[in-house]
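COMPLEX REQUEST
Ligand: NAP
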Amino acid sequence: MTRGVLVITGASRGIGAATARLAGAAGYDVLVNFVSNADAATSVVAAIEAAGGSAFSVQADASSKAGIAAIFAAADARGTLAGLVNNAGVVDARSRVDEMDEARLTRMMGTNIVGPMLCAGEAVRRLSTLHGGAGGAIVNVSSVAARLGSPAEYVDYAASKAAIDTFTLGLAREVATEGIRVNAVRPGIIDTEIHASGGQPDRVQRVRGMVPMLREGKADEVARAILWLLSDEASYTTGALLDVGGGR
Ligand code: NAP
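STATUS: Structure written out below.
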């Protein structure tokens, strides 16, 4: 008997994978969503199962309506939804705003804010007591970039994360009496492959010195905050933006 299905978008690598492993150990039946890296998703599921937990992977683009429909259809086929972690997110190459084109901005906003809002809508339709659901929790993965703006690096990414923050506040208040808590974590510089995907494989080493704790974070350190926000330990916490950035 699990605690219900937990949908985690982008759970094959990085913060999503760490969250999936902790959620499996905490008794959720974990939907490990990924877009292209099937081997990584398979190994996350295998690790959860080897530890005695329950998980399954779903290949789908969490920025598209069709992909999101596939994710929630797979969740429904498995059991009752317990919660959602809107984790999938992308960066792009270091650029100034006057160098960014429409394709880049459309991809950035599609993955980092439109997809998470559509996923949250699907989750609310299943969790809300207004719709006959039993309640649950949503955690959005934002970034300290929402506060910093990321000038000359990726203002588009920072703006997408600021949108996630405001979305978190608004949705939390919208569904506060419907058994759903909605919160966000705002990671700082975390050691994952996202930096290399934006063409800056040395970014962690470069930025580390700007963090008051003088070190990068580990994906597990963000995952633990996400698990707390999902849990009943956070029963009176909603609309919170929890910084996990070593003081940055
Ligand atoms: P990562 O290591 O690059 O992993 C990204 C994950 O998202 C992968 O599992 C990838 O799947 C998946 N993904 C990407 N686009 C997707 C899509 N359209 N549909 C479904 N899955 C998709 O990233 P990360 O560093 O763990 O970042 C996770 C979240 O934390 C993001 O929202 C990011 O903005 C945020 N964050 C990260 C940092 C940091 O320093 N790392 C700091 C602040 C915030 P595949 O394996 O199939 O490619």
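REMARKS: The pocket of NAP is lined by residues 9-16, 33-37, 40, 61-63, 87-90, 111, 141, 143, 187, 189-190, 192-194, 197 (CB under 6 Å). The chain has one domain: 5-244.
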